[in-house]
Design goal:
Largest sheet of chain A: 7 strands, mixed
Distance between the termini of chain B: 144 Å
Structural class of chain A: mainly beta
CATH class of the largest domain in chain A: Mainly Beta
Region (Disordered) (chain B): 305-330, 1221-1287
Number of strands of chain A: 23
Distance between the termini of chain A: 6 Å
CATH architecture of the largest domain in chain A: Sandwich
Biased composition (Polar residues) (chain B): 305-314, 1244-1261
Number of helices of chain B: 39
Strand content of chain B: 15-25%
Radius of gyration of chain B: 47 Å
Order of helices and strands of chain A: EEEEHEEEEEEHHEEEEEEEEEEEEHE
Protein name (chain B): Guanine nucleotide exchange factor subunit RIC1
Helix content of chain A: 10-25%
Helix content of chain B: 25-40%
Oligomer: heterodimer
Number of domains of chain A: 2
Shape of chain B: elongated
Number of helices of chain A: 4
Structural class of chain B: alpha+beta
Largest interface: A-B, 51 and 62 residues
Shape of chain A: elongated
Pfam family, one (chain B): Beta-prop_RIC1_2nd
CATH topology of the largest domain in chain A: Immunoglobulin-like
Family (chain B): Belongs to the RIC1 family.
Number of strands of chain B: 47
């Protein structure tokens, strides 16, 4: 029996283009003193990253894929096919790397291997939508002699920051020291610099505030003003906006704001012409606001949600969806019974005519620092199997 | 229904009191009116007839109010004290209580609060039995009633400190309004002059709008504080509704209102509070969980937390926050990853809207041990949510939800949710357990009937604790049963403890928990496995922490016969009061033998009084635990945050604070938007954490419990912030004692210093502390911790150079410049030796600063230093400069040497501008000395790094040292050293040319007699040479014989015109090396490598031409070092060339095996008049190399023979120069001598080679050169012979 434990040291979330490092430990769990102790052998182990794509049959019509050739290979028990037995197709994979051949583990002994691979910078982000799924996995295959291959899957999450791959490190070349005695610890630094750069780019993109004011009005007239301070956010941030109804002509009885994503299949892949796009609500605020002069809302963008992106098959867009219930008649919406000089009782009307209308405000949602996102990832950073 | 009563005076205060209405009028009467408004139920009490006294005991003879015109300005009825707190119009405050149950004039008594004479208003907290009196001076005095005497007892004071609000002091005006929140946990105070402040029940200040972001606009202008006419808390304390006092006067109506505005503006502030304000179950609160009316805030995913589940009982305050002013914008800055526990990010869970719609607002919430599931309770039913799957689970049957009302809170037990509820269908109190994984339905629930209304619920391990309205505590055991598909949990009653004797009113109980804490730690020490058992009940009764310990004094404590049934009947001892003014209690049932102090302690938060810990004390000597019955000690300490969770193992406290986002600037755009927007910033909640360990250590030291402090500290020494803890402790004690006005009789600093010396971080801690304190305190500090000079030296000894550098700054300030320079020099030299370049650069700066300070010269900012310090990028530019400089240097050096009388070598202007600065000279001296040492020890790599890192001007220096340190004394040694330093492999003879011993042997057997003969001859020669070199001094005669024999061979070789491959492969030297073997370590290893190579090659040795070529190629590659080394060597070569250190050039040329380099050197020697000594040296060196190569490293032979002609030429030069000089016997004849036998050798070997083409192929390129070399060889030979003749 050999225990295989894979650990993503930095957590299970990465930016596309970053280097993923996984420490894979093979342990013979028997203690050296136990009577039945014997050393264990593994013929080989190798590791590979792949991205699995899966689409809903009802919504997505894919051209016939060539993914079937994998199945043919999979018949052969000695071929390492990382996505064997998974649904969907492998749309992206890194070259397999051999960790070792002929590993012998004495009782109680364990050996660790570090697997490093740069994640493809141009892949799709991890995404679980209603029509389409993109799932990234690191698969470690190992085999005992004369046994089938065992696979250990380490799922992880990939965030894509568009534009990052185009961004050169100009200072890189300029700084290159020409005195050969000046030490340069470039190697690992570059990777952390990618994350730093991404963080910086994100900060620049999302910290810019500019006041956006929107007049909300329907056919009857003005309802109020909506004010939002920015339209570009990182996941994990709160979308904050304010309403002012004091200048409106039409009383607003209730409003709701939903933070939604819109997942649409590109036209050429749609199963049916004009099939509806699917919406997902991530957060919602609802308030009764008759007589309210000012109000505000704060909607958290979940850290676990996928930032907006587009691939050739699907596109994900974020928006704020507003719904306003306004009074249909401009007449008073509450009644004051009794004369003003005496005690007064306020009562609401029992029935009133209302209009309901909605409005959408597109916003941009970007990724965040992958380390931050690791804190709430549903993936565990350690995975193990026993073979 | 309307009824008018005429009370004949204006009403000043009105209170409802059970079924009565209590009205105070301005004529000094109290009217008691029955609710139904019947006049016959009315009673008027003249205040003048109520006796008042200091306490109830003396009130029998109590005085009456004693003067006219007194009336009640404000009053509030307190049900749990059964009386009402009153504020009189003259500012006095008191408490009026009926002597019997009925409120009649004869039986009323009053007590005074003696210290208050300026009362303005009052508010009563029923749960904690507190009366808060607002005063005209702006403070709030909080009183309770002494239950024994009946006197008013001062509890605490709510007061803005001038420290925090310097300019607000006395500007608040009198207290205007005080409002306790519905859950009695916080109080809101506002003043006449405006402003809002929020305090915890025992006086920890949580928020105040008079300071910071609230008081000032972003441009620094002062804001008008919000003036409040009236305010009230909303349901569950999630909102504060405020009528804005400003609005009626100076604002247009309908402009400034948030909600429901007509004539006056009404503001609604939103709050979130810690979940444990209302649900203080200790079992499952491991994280900070804040609940708002529609969402939860969790401190998500701290790795440390999920790994070791924590158990904290945070019952706490409203964390005010999120003011919902009409502002907007901002967002949590999620980027700042805090060093300690993750980040400031909250995990926000929005409560399912379907549940919220019918059950708003949220009343209780609970999170499970692993922080993965939360459950919330609204008006009816409950719902739960998984943070992993992000899915809510609601009752499938809405009727079940709506007939269930949770009354006593809820708690997680593993996968189960335990809750106490009222069944509206059956009118029955129940205890229910639902499984998380099954559908939310009563069919899957385990339901137990409970006798009375449950007020509190908690889970300790497998025990459920209920506190019921009949003042009894019920313990149930809970057990998992996995029969059938769905596991269920069943509950059994264990024990019922009636507390009615101790608890006057069930409403007063804040929390009930079961803990493993005992007063004596002896038992847990003896039997640590018992530590987790339920040993005591902790009851927070209106702030009074009461402990009921299990009575183990009886005979039943014998552990062996202690089966579960017996144990549950173990009675509890009489209650003991542990502490007063307790807001929250934290304990854990986890065990960690390493951190017993922290885990077995009881942590309390006491509002304004800070925190307390009830720390167990353990005997240090574990061998005799029985002899020492340890105790516990209560230590108070202050932290700066309001604690919401205690992380036991991490010695951390977590909290949450209000953070504000300013948007003032934005309103300029929106022009005349409401002024309210400017009154408040937008508030968000931010996470905080704090270390407290230093407080506890210090408290222990104060109490002479140094041993305990050490035990505790050692158990935490692995925490990442432990160094910080020590530093904080030292710093705080230092600040306090050094700045104290009066002399301290028993100073703690020496104790603290001694304590810190117990840890390896001592030196570091002291210096960090010193550098963060003012200079004025240093003397005091170092008087306690020791002389900084000694500490500096200790650092040096411990090789902790960075810390030593920190001490230097202290020395610089405390000592005369000479001393700090002396120490700086010490450190500088050590740093140079260890190659700590950053430190070296700092030290250079430092030394210069000392110098400039001393000699009043301007700070050294030489322009030439900059390019050099930026390293090689400027190399070429710099080089041209240095060339001219070096010339200059040569001229100036003698002057300088003379004037400054530097003994140890020549000095040169390095930074031309400030060459006259003595400090620079001094630094230069040290740099030179170091460079010289490196060079003398042949540490070229180190020298390169040194020069590059420190911007040391290498060329100029080398120029000066050309004839001294920069001379290569021993070429062979230098060569070997370079090989080693630059990881450069020794050259290898190509495989086909019989490199390895293995091949050698093969050849020997395979080839014919002739070869063997020549081999043996050669062996003989080489052997002799070897012995000659190593043992005897060379005698001329001996050499002469050799040379003569060589000459013979040479002539032989010169006869074969087709034998071009002269340099190839001294067959015999190979054999030699084999036999000599361990001549030097280096060659041995390299020959091993060779062996490997050839063995591998052997497999392919059917020896097709291309293959052998490939082999050679690969061999050549293998004999080259790493690319980086090559670049570095070339760089050094340039430097040496530039500086004219030709002998070094030769050495590097050799190691790189580039004949062009050697050529260049020789041509320089010829062209310019170089010191004859140098030429001579080079020649001697090359000879030595040649000899060494012949014996130890034949791989060099081919190259040496390539450059042979040049060497020959060199001989000529030396000749010319030597002739006039003294007798130069040795070398000239040697070079040809060596080249020639090889020539013959290779000739023979190639002629017998199985694969002659390979030789030819490999040597084609060099053939031409060889031809030339040979002719020159002959020339030089003749010269040599001539030389011999001369001598």
């Amino acid at each position: 029996m050999i225990e295989v434990l894979a650990k993503l040291g930095r957590g299970p979330v990465f930016l596309a283009g970053e280097v993923l490092e996984c420490v894979i430990t093979f342990t013979n769990p028997l203690s050296a003193s136990s009577t039945s102790a014997s050393s264990e052998m593994l013929a080989w182990a190798s590791a590979q990253i792949h991205c699995q794509f899966h689409a809903s049959e009802n919504r997505v019509a894919l051209p016939p894929s060539d993914g079937s050739k994998h199945d043919v290979q999979a018949e052969n028990e000695t071929v390492f096919v990382p996505n064997r037995g998974e649904r969907g197709q492998c749309i992206l994979s890194t070259p397999p790397k051999i960790l070792f051949c002929d590993l012998r583990l004495d009782p109680g002994e364990s050996k660790s291997y570090s697997y490093c691979e740069t994640l493809p910078v141009d892949g799709p982000p991890s995404f679980r939508g209603q029509s389409v799924k993109y799932v990234y996995k690191l698969t470690i295959g190992c085999q005992r002699v004369n046994s089938p291959i065992k696979l250990l899957r380490v799922p992880f999450r990939v965030l894509v920051l568009h534009g990052l791959k185009d961004y050169q490190f100009p200072q890189d070349e300029a700084v290159a020291p020409s005195n050969p005695f000046l030490e340069e610890e470039e190697g690992l630094k570059k990777d952390s610099r990618l994350a730093d750069l991404a963080t910086e780019l994100l900060m620049v993109a999302t910290s810019r505030r500019s006041l956006h004011l929107y007049n909300i009005s329907n056919t009857r007239g003005k309802v109020g003003t909506f004010c939002i301070f920015k339209t570009v956010y990182k996941i994990g941030e709160d979308v904050i906006g304010t309403f002012s109804f004091s200048e409106g002509d039409i009383p607003c009885l209730q409003f709701s704001v939903s933070l939604q994503t819109e997942e649409s299949i590109q036209e050429e892949f749609q199963r049916r012409r004009g099939q509806p796009v699917s919406f997902t609500v991530h957060a919602r605020h609802q308030e009764s606001c008759l007589h309210t002069a000012q109000s505000s809302f704060s909607l958290p963008i979940p850290l676990s949600s996928t930032p907006g992106f587009t691939t050739n098959i699907v596109s994900l867009k974020w928006r704020l969806h507003f719904e306003f219930v306004t009074s249909g008649e401009s007449a008073g919406t509450c009644l004051v019974r009794g004369s003003q000089s005496e005690a007064v009782t306020w009562t609401g009307v029992e029935q009133m005519e209302v209009d309901t209308f909605s409005w959408d405000l597109p916003i941009k949602v970007l990724p965040t620092n992958p380390i931050l996102a690791s804190y709430v990832s549903q993936f565990s950073s350690t995975n193990s199997i026993t073979i | 229904m309307k009824k008018v009563l005429d009370l004949q005076a204006s009403i000043t205060s009105l209170q409802s009191m059970l079924e009565d209405l209590l009205v105070a009028t301005a004529d000094g009467f109290l009217h008691l009116i029955h609710w139904d408004g019947m006049t016959n139920g009315r009673k008027a009490i003249n205040l003048c007839t109520v006796p008042f006294s200091v306490d109830l005991q003396s009130s029998r003879a109590g005085s009456l109010l004693g003067f006219e015109d007194v009336y009640i300005r404000d009053m509030e009825y307190c049900a749990t004290l059964d009386g009402f707190a009153v504020v009189f119009n003259d500012g006095r405050v008191g408490f009026i209580t009926p002597m019997s149950s009925r409120l009649t004039a004869e039986q009323l008594h009053g007590v005074w609060a003696q210290d208050v004479v300026d009362g303005t208003c009052v508010a009563v907290n029923n749960k904690y039995r507190l009366m808060a009196f607002g005063c005209a001076n702006g403070s709030v005095q909080v009183y309770t009633i002494d239950t024994t005497t009946g006197a008013m007892q001062f509890s605490h004071k709510l007061e803005l400190t001038p420290k925090q609000y310097p300019d607000i002091w006395n500007k608040t005006g009198p207290v205007k309004l005080i409002r306790w929140s519905p859950d009695s946990c916080v109080v809101m105070v506002t003043w006449e002059c405006g402003g809002l402040s929020l305090w915890s029940v025992f006086g920890a200040q949580l928020i105040c709008t008079l300071g910071g972001d609230f008081a000032y606009q972003s441009d620094g202008a002062k804001k008008d504080p919000l003036k409040i006419c009236s305010m009230t808390w909303g349901s569950e304390g999630y909102h504060l509704w405020v009528i804005d006092g400003n609005s009626s006067s100076n604002m247009k109506p309908e402009r400034n209102a948030n909600n429901e505005a007509q004539q006056f503006g009404i503001l609604q502030f939103q709050f979130i509070k810690s979940a444990l304000t209302v649900n203080p179950c200790m079992s499952n609160q491991e994280q900070v969980l804040l609940q708002g009316e529609d969402r939860l805030y969790l401190n998500c995913g701290d790795a440390a937390q999920t790994q070791s589940p924590r158990n904290t009982s945070a019952h706490s305050e409203h964390n005010h926050s999120r003011e919902k002013g009409p502002f907007s914008g901002g967002s949590l800055d999620s980027q700042g990853l805090s060093t300690l526990l993750g980040h400031r990010h909250w995990h926000v869970v929005q409560i399912h809207s379907t549940y919220l719609e019918s059950n708003w607002p949220i009343r209780f919430s609970a999170i499970d041990k692993l922080g993965q599931n939360v459950a919330v309770v609204g008006k009816f039913g409950f719902a739960h949510y998984s943070l992993l799957t992000k899915k809510w689970k609601l009752f499938g049957n809405i009727t079940q939800e709506q007939t269930m009302m949770v009354t006593g809170g809820l708690a997680w037990w593993n996968d189960f949710i335990v809750l106490a509820c009222y069944n509206l269908n059956d009118h029955q109190e129940e205890l229910r357990i639902y499984l998380r994984t099954s559908n939310l339905d009563n069919a899957f629930a385990h339901i137990t009937k409970v006798q009375a209304n449950t007020l509190l619920l908690s889970v300790f391990r497998d025990i459920v604790i209920l506190f019921r309205a009949d003042c009894s505590i019920c313990l149930y055991s809970i057990e998992r049963r996995s029969e059938g598909l769905n596991p269920t949990a069943s509950i059994q009653i264990l024990q019922e403890v009636s507390m009615s004797r101790y608890i006057p009113h069930p409403f007063l109980v804040v929390s009930v928990t079961l803990t493993s804490v005992r007063t004596e730690t002896g038992i847990t020490l003896k039997m640590p496995q018992q530590a987790c058992e339920a040993e005591s009940i902790m009851l927070n009764l209106a702030g009074q922490l009461i402990m009921l310990q299990r009575d183990r004094s009886g005979p039943q404590i014998r552990d062996k016969d202690n089966n579960p049934n017996q144990r549950k009947h173990l009675p509890f001892c009489a209650p003991v009061v542990l502490a007063q003014s307790v807001e929250n209690v934290w304990t854990t049932c986890r065990i960690n033998k390493q951190k017993r102090h922290l885990l077995e302690a009881l942590w309390l938060s006491c509002g304004g009084a800070g925190m307390k810990v009830w720390l167990p004390l353990f005997p240090r000597d574990h061998r005799k635990p029985h002899s020492f019955l340890s105790r516990r000690i209560m230590l108070p300490f202050h932290i700066n945050i309001y604690p919401l969770a205690v992380l036991f193992e991490d010695a951390l406290v977590l909290g949450a604070v209000n953070d504000t986002v300013l948007y003032d600037c934005l309103y300029t755009q929106t022009s005349a938007r409401e002024h309210l927007e400017v009154l408040f910033p937008f508030s968000i909640v931010e996470r905080t954490s704090q270390i407290y360990l230093h407080h506890i250590l210090r408290q222990l030291l104060v109490r002479n419990l140094g041993e305990q402090a050490l035990l505790l500290a050692h158990s935490c020494a692995t925490l990442p912030y432990f160094p910080h803890v020590l530093e904080l402790m030292l710093h705080e004690v230092l600040e306090e004692e050094a700045t104290s006005r009066e002399p301290i009789p028993d100073p703690l600093l020496p104790t603290v210093a001694k304590f810190i010396t117990e840890f390896p971080l001592f030196l570091q801690t002291v210096v960090h502390c010193a550098r963060k304190t003012e200079y004025a305190l240093w003397n005091y500090l170092f008087a306690a911790v020791g002389n900084p000079k000694d500490l500096f030296e200790e650092c040096l000894m411990a090789q902790d150079l960075d810390t030593a550098a920190s001490y230097l700054i202290i020395l610089q300030n405390m000592e005369v410049p000479a001393v700090s320079r002396q120490h700086a020099t010490l450190l500088f030299n050590t740093a140079l030796e260890q190659g700590k370049w950053d430190l070296c650069r700092h030290m250079i700066r430092f030394l210069k600063a000392i110098g400039s300070g001393e000699t009043e010269t301007p700070p050294a900012t030489p322009t030439t230093q900059e390019p050099s310090s930026s390293g090689g990028f400027e190399f070429f530019r710099h080089r041209s400069i240095s060339l001219s400089q070096s010339a200059e240097n040569l001229h100036s050096k003698f002057n300088l040497t003379k004037t400054l009388s530097m003994p140890s070598g020549p000095s040169v202007k390095r930074w031309s501008k400030d060459s006259d600065c003595a400090e620079n000279m001094y630094i230069d001296m040290m740099l030179w000395r170091h460079a010289r040492r490196l060079l003398e020890e042949i540490k070229l790599k180190d020298l390169g790094c040194f020069a590059a890192q420190l911007g040391f001007e290498l060329i100029g220096w080398l120029c000066k040292e050309r004839a001294r340190a920069a001379r290569v004394e021993d070429f062979v040694c230098a060569l070997k050293k370079l090989h080693k330093d630059f990881l450069w492999p020794f050259p290898v003879i190509p495989a086909s040319s019989i490199n390895s011993p293995f091949k050698n042997g093969k050849y020997k057997t395979a080839v014919g007699e002739q070869l063997l003969k020549s081999q043996s001859a050669d062996t003989f020669v080489n052997m002799e040479m070897d012995t000659g070199i190593s043992t005897t001094p060379r005698s001329r005669s001996w050499l002469a014989t050799i040379s003569s024999s060589q000459r013979e061979m040479d002539t032989v070789s010169s006869h074969g015109p087709h034998m071009q491959d002269a340099f190839l492969s001294p067959l015999l030297s190979k054999g030699d090396e084999c036999s000599i073997g361990s001549a030097t370590d280096l060659t041995e290893t390299s020959s091993m490598v060779d062996g490997d190579w050839t063995i591998v090659d052997e497999n392919f040795s059917s020896l097709s031409l291309t293959q052998s070529e490939l082999e050679q190629l690969s061999l050549e590659l293998a004999s080259k070092g790493p690319h980086k080394s090559q670049v570095q060597l070339r760089y050094l070569l340039h430097i040496f060339m530039e500086a004219g250190c030709l002998d070094w050039c030769v050495v590097i040329g050799l190691i790189l095996r580039e004949s062009s380099v050697i050529n260049q050197v020789f041509s320089i020697m010829q062209s310019s008049d170089i010191d004859g000594e140098i030429c001579q040296n080079i020649k001697t060196g090359l000879d030595a190399v040649d000899k060494w190569a012949s014996t130890d490293c034949p791989g060099y032979k081919p190259f040496l023979s390539i450059i042979k002609p040049q060497i020959q030429k060199l001989n000529e030069i030396v000749e010319e120069q030597v002739q006039p000089e003294a007798f130069q016997p040795v070398n000239p004849s040697k070079v040809p001598e060596q080249a020639n036998p090889r020539a013959e050798e290779s000739r023979t070997s190639s002629s017998h080679s199985t694969n002659p083409q390979s030789d030819a192929g490999s040597n084609n390129a060099s053939r031409h050169e060889e031809d030339k070399a040979k002719t020159e060889d002959e020339d030089s030979f003749q010269e040599g012979s001539y030389d011999c003749v001369v001598s």
